[in-house]
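Sequence, please.
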């Protein structure tokens, strides 16, 4: 008699299903969805999502299509390697295969220089963009930096709402996550065009869309404001927002999963500054010193 799926050992699991589950979990975390939220938006069973993520679910094509639509990715990205789709992709992949992260970063910058509108490093440093999860201090520290440098402070979230004509929550409720990403990219494009000098606080999920994140990296000097998951959660709740904990016993695990899934993208920032166990004033002084040290190291001034 076959054993239930939940009793399967790692040796019993299909390697393809294990890899599929890991990709789904990573995509979900990068987009900032809890398992429950993803299941509701895709109109599928949360239990089935959990089984697929654990490597024991036998997912149908339709099930995967529904998930891919919500996660704004292709089926190829979810189930396999999309770089096998053409001879050029295959040749590019072979050039990049096995390269370390620093060489891949150089290749990305070189490709951006070929295909994107070139931006000089001095012009890029006229916009400092703060990235990271909620509770890291992007809004408060961003406003303090902007005041200190006497330049505009731009909260990208408010720019998104201004363009959409409604709140971010309403964008998600009325039009869905894909529409939100389109508004987010448009807001960033308009910010880059309208503010040659600024400090920008970005939404935590700006790294979820590679095209938008590439645009940010190309036109702004980026700083990842980092903190521990416990501090992220504590600061958000201290601000009066209890939604992260409301009705969700797995809130901390969800937050850790999101942070883990986005960390590799956040780490592409020009600088990382850890605000853990620091007051707002100490964080500001430390961040300002960190940016000054970057100026001395690169011999290129901000503003």
């Amino acid at each position: 008699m076959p054993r239930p799926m939940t009793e399967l050992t790692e040796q019993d699991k299909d390697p393809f299903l294990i890899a599929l589950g890991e990709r789904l979990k990573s995509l979900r975390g990068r987009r900032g969805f809890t398992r429950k939220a993803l299941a509701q938006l895709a109109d599928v069973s949360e239990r089935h999502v959990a089984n697929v993520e654990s490597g024991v679910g036998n997912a149908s094509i339709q099930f995967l299509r529904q998930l891919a639509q919500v996660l704004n990715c292709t089926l190829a990205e979810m189930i396999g390697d999309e770089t096998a789709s053409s001879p050029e992709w295959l040749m590019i992949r072979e050039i990049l295969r096995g390269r370390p992260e620093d060489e891949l970063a150089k290749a990305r910058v070189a490709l951006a220089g070929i295909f994107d509108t070139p931006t000089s490093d001095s012009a890029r440093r006229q916009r400092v963009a703060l990235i990271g999860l909620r509770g890291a201090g992007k809004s408060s520290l961003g406003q303090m930096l902007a005041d200190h440098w006497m330049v505009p402070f731009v909260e990208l979230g408010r720019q998104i709402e201004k363009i959409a004509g409604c709140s971010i929550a309403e964008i998600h409720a009325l039009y869905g996550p894909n529409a939100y990403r389109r508004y987010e990219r448009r807001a960033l494009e308009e910010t880059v065009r309208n503010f040659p000098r600024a400090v920008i606080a970005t939404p935590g999920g700006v790294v979820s869309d590679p095209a938008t994140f590439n645009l940010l990296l190309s036109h702004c000097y980026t700083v990842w404001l980092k903190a521990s998951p416990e501090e992220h959660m504590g600061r958000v709740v201290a601000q009066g927002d209890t939604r992260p904990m409301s009705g969700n016993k797995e809130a901390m695990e969800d937050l850790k999963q999101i942070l883990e899934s986005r960390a590799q993208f956040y780490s592409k920032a020009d600088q990382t500054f850890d605000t853990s166990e620091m007051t707002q004033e100490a964080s500001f002084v430390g961040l300002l010193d960190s940016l000054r040290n970057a100026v001395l190291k690169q011999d290129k001034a901000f503003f």
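The chain has a mean pLDDT of 86.
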